[in-house]
Design goal:
By secondary structure, the protein is mainly α. The protein has a single domain (12-135), classed as Up-down Bundle (Four Helix Bundle (Hemerythrin (Met), subunit A)). The chain is built from six helices and two strands. The chain has helices at 15-34, 38-61, 71-80, 84-97, 100-105, 112-132; strands at 7-9, 63-65. The chain has a two-stranded antiparallel sheet. The chain is globular.
C-alpha cells in the first residue's frame, strides 16, 4: 500500500505562530533537561523541530504537512530545498524526528547524552530555519 502525504494550505504570515511554539518547546525542553527529565525534554525537542519545520514550510510554501508520519514534513522541505547546505540541515531535522518513536513507544530511557545529541541536531536545524524566515525570527536567537 502506498502512503499518501496530506498537506494543508496555510497563509504565509502564520509562520510566526509555528515558530513561537517551537521556541517555547525548545526553552521548556532546556528547563526539563536541567532537572534531569531527559525523556520529556527530548520529546519537546521533537515538537520544537516540527514547529520549526512547519514555520519554514508555511512561510516559503504556504502549506504544511498534516500526515501522520513526520517523514512527509521532511519530504516537503526536500522537494523545495535542493542545495547541499539545505539538505544537510534537513538531515538534522530527520535525526530529531527519527527519535520520536524511541522516546514515546519503547521502554528505553533517554539520558543526558541523548539530550545533548538531539539538542545539537535541533539547534543546527533551527539555525538553518531562521535563515529561511523573515529577519525577526532570529531576534529570539
Amino acid at each position: 500500500m502506498t502512503r499518501k502525504d496530506h498537506f494543508a494550505d496555510v497563509k504565509s504570515e502564520e509562520w510566526a505562530g509555528y515558530f513561537s511554539k517551537a521556541e517555547e518547546h525548545r526553552t521548556s525542553a532546556g528547563n526539563l533537561a536541567e532537572d534531569g527529565n531527559y525523556n520529556s525534554a527530548c520529546l519537546l525537542l521533537v515538537h520544537a523541530a516540527i514547529g520549526y519545520s512547519d514555520a519554514v514550510s508555511v512561510f516559503v510554501l504556504e502549506r504544511k504537512s498534516t500526515a501522520d508520519s513526520h517523514d512527509a514534513s521532511i519530504r516537503l522541505l526536500e522537494d523545495k530545498f535542493i542545495e547541499t547546505k539545505d539538505r544537510e540541515a534537513i538531515k538534522h531535522l530527520g535525526r530529531v524526528l527519527g527519535a520520536k518513536g524511541r522516546i514515546e513507544y519503547t521502554g528505553t530511557a533517554f539520558r543526558e547524552r541523548d539530550w545533548t545529541e538531539m539538542k545539537k541536531h535541533l539547534d543546527r536545524f533551527r539555525a538553518w530555519a531562521i535563515t529561511k524566515l523573515p529577519p525577526r525570527a532570529g531576534a529570539a536567537a
